[in-house]
């Protein structure tokens, strides 16, 4: 950052406010991290505020060497950072040096005001993929029917609704073919923005044709297209939220990370949220978060009960899923379950991508893996994840 010394001259110009200008600039920039995406934006805002401050003091600081050094230094830095002379500036109130449209800066502001160290915000993860499989904000894993439109998230800041349709004729198996997201208006950071994705229509823009919310310069909310028509990301910096949406085969997957305090900001009437409270018991297919799939053929006469239209046996489905997922955790078993149910190999890619998205967004690595109840370590051994013939038949009948 800019380094300026008084050169023994400050006492001669007591009316010159250059020291205050410099102190404010240091305050504006001391918390910035050059590795972050918004560094240049915030640094330029601070430089413009610094330049404005020097302009206001130009007359009283006319003979001050420190003042002239600062003016030259500001010009050099603005050129180096490609800063425009016109544009937003950092607040001249030191109490307001945080960016109100940057959720990660809110904690720093609280610390500044309370003079006490506050813990960093806690983030939560939710994901939906496949047939469909749900990982809630509480890291509960469920497989559900939930045909039709259901709310995943519905709080004071964000609403996410998914629509699930039957996958196989004559079966209750469903998958997601439509996702609607509403980013609610928030201060000056964004006006309300609605995003909608459907099978074979995964746009890189909101329904109004824009790709960002609020002031385009702040990028408090924006969409990034990673793979045209197949994969987009949404970054809502003002609420610390990231959303991934993919199309794999004919269906969509969703992964989201959001701060816990915002996840829990909802009214009693908004309690039907799959990401928060899971699926209603009447819609559950799994048993307490565990898929009823044995992987040792000798236990169950699979030829008698497996879905005849899937085209996969237990062995071939296991082999297919093992190509993408070496660890036999719940994502692996979800893949096997979906192949046996639908016969659609795209569900293998969906499970694998859901696993990758979880690893990218889930904040706690120690909670990434969810294993079957037997405690199988998932490394090349046959699972002890067994169920009785009667229970398995009941589950399969639900899909027929």
From TrEMBL:
It is found in: Cell membrane. Gene3D superfamilies: Mog1/PsbP, alpha/beta/alpha sandwich. Keywords: Autocatalytic cleavage, Cell membrane, Disulfide bond, Glycoprotein, GPI-anchor, Lipoprotein, Membrane, Signal. GO terms for biological process: BMP signaling pathway; positive regulation of macromolecule metabolic process; regulation of primary metabolic process. The keyword Isomerase does not apply. GO terms for cellular component: plasma membrane; side of membrane. Residues 16-85 form the Repulsive guidance molecule N-terminal domain. One of its GO terms (molecular function) is coreceptor activity. It is a lipid-anchor; GPI-anchor. It comes from the Eukaryota. Residues 123-363 form the Repulsive guidance molecule C-terminal domain. PANTHER family: REPULSIVE GUIDANCE MOLECULE B, RGM DOMAIN FAMILY MEMBER DRAG-1. Belongs to the repulsive guidance molecule (RGM) family. This is RGMB protein. The gene is Rgmb.
């Amino acid at each position: 950052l800019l380094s300026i010394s008084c050169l023994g001259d400050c006492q001669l110009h007591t009316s010159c406010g250059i020291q205050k200008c410099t102190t404010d600039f240091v305050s504006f920039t001391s918390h910035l991290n050059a590795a972050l995406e918004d560094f240049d934006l915030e640094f330029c805002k601070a430089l413009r505020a610094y330049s404005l401050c020097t302009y206001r003091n130009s007359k009283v600081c006319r003979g001050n060497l420190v003042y002239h050094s600062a003016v030259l230094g500001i010009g050099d830095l603005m050129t180096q950072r490609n800063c425009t002379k016109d544009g937003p500036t950092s607040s001249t109130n030191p109490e307001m040096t945080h960016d109100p449209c940057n959720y990660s800066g809110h904690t720093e502001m609280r610390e500044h005001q309370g003079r006490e160290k506050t813990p960093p915000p806690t983030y939560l993860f939710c994901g939906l993929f496949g047939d469909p499989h749900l990982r809630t904000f509480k890291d509960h894993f469920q497989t559900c029917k939930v045909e039709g439109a259901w709310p995943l998230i519905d709080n004071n800041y964000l609403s996410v609704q998914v629509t699930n349709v039957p996958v196989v004729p004559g079966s209750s198996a469903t998958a997601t073919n439509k996702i609607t997201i509403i980013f609610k208006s928030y201060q000056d950071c964004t006006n309300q923005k609605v995003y909608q994705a459907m099978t074979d229509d995964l746009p890189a823009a909101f329904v109004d044709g824009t790709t960002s919310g609020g002031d385009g310069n702040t990028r408090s909310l924006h969409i990034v297209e990673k793979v045209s028509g197949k994969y987009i990301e949404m970054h809502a910096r003002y609420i610390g939220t990231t959303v991934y949406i993919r199309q794999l085969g004919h269906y969509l997957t969703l992964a989201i990370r959001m701060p816990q305090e915002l996840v829990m900001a909802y009214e009693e009437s908004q309690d039907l949220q799959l990401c928060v409270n899971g699926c209603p018991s009447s819609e559950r297919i799994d048993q307490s978060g565990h898929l009823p799939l044995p992987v040792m053929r000798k236990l169950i006469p699979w030829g008698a009960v497996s879905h005849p239209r899937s085209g996969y046996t237990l062995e071939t489905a296991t082999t297919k899923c093992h190509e993408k997922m070496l660890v036999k955790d719940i994502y692996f078993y979800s893949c096997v379950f979906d192949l046996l149910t639908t016969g659609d190999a795209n569900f293998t890619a969906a499970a694998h991508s859901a696993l990758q998205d979880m690893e990218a967004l889930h904040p706690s690595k120690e909670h990434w893996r969810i294993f079957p109840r037997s405690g199988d370590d998932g490394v090349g051994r046959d699972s002890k994840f067994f169920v009785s013939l009667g229970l398995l038949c009941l589950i399969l009948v639900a899909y027929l």
